[in-house]
Design a protein that fits this description.
The protein is built from seven helices and seven strands. The chain is α/β, with parallel strands linked by helices. It is elongated and about 100 Å long.
């Protein structure tokens, strides 16, 4: 940690070691991100290199950048985005706001997040547990999968009814009922987003 030396009336009294506490379940969250298919986890921090390296090693973070000012974090994020892959940034402080805005997906921790971070983020997690970040990814993936299913299903049914109507096989009522039926089935399918497997 950061060592602060103290003196009382001109005489050395000792020192205090100031160190951030690693969030509970942080190691578990990093492991869950890797299981979810996240290729690389990167820690951007203003802490000194020795502390940052120790925390990254403890948590299993793939890459660490230390001694960063807020402007340095923005530069690091820009460099990470150059490979064309999607970037998800997680932060909670006011100095994280530029990074949250610059990333493809900015995730703010709502329990302790600053107002600037919450406004800049795309997703706000109501709480401070990092284990919710992998859950956000699973929910987003499942939602997009269901959206694609609904679009394909609706187009297939509607095109099929149009073709049948063009040949005079069906009438207007079949088209109306199929349209309503497609809407109801799409809504029912969308309700599956409420149930996401916990991994």
């Amino acid at each position: 940690g950061t060592i602060t030396h103290m003196a009382v009336d001109g005489r050395y009294a000792g020192h205090i070691v100031i160190s951030d506490v690693v969030k509970p379940h942080a190691k578990e969250a990093i492991a869950a991100l890797h299981r979810a298919g996240v290729e690389k986890t990167v820690m951007l921090t203003g802490d000194v290199k020795k502390v940052a390296d120790a925390v990254a090693s403890e948590l299993g973070v793939d890459e660490v950048h230390s001694d960063l000012l807020p402007a340095d974090k923005v530069e690091a994020i820009s460099a990470l985005r150059e490979d064309g892959k999607k970037l998800l940034y997680v932060g909670d402080g006011i100095n994280d706001a530029p990074g949250l805005a610059l990333a493809d997906v900015g995730v703010a921790m709502g329990g302790i997040g600053s107002a600037a971070a919450l406004q800049a983020a795309d997703v706000v997690i109501m709480g401070d547990s990092l284990t919710k970040v992998p859950a956000v990814i699973r929910i987003a993936r499942k939602t997009m999968r269901i959206v694609r299913e609904n679009i394909v299903f609706a187009l297939v049914i509607k095109v099929g009814v149009v073709i049948l109507s063009a040949f005079g096989i069906t009438d207007l009522w079949v088209a109306v009922f199929s349209d309503v039926g497609v809407c109801l089935l799409a809504v029912a399918n969308a309700l599956r987003t409420m149930r996401v497997a916990k991994k």
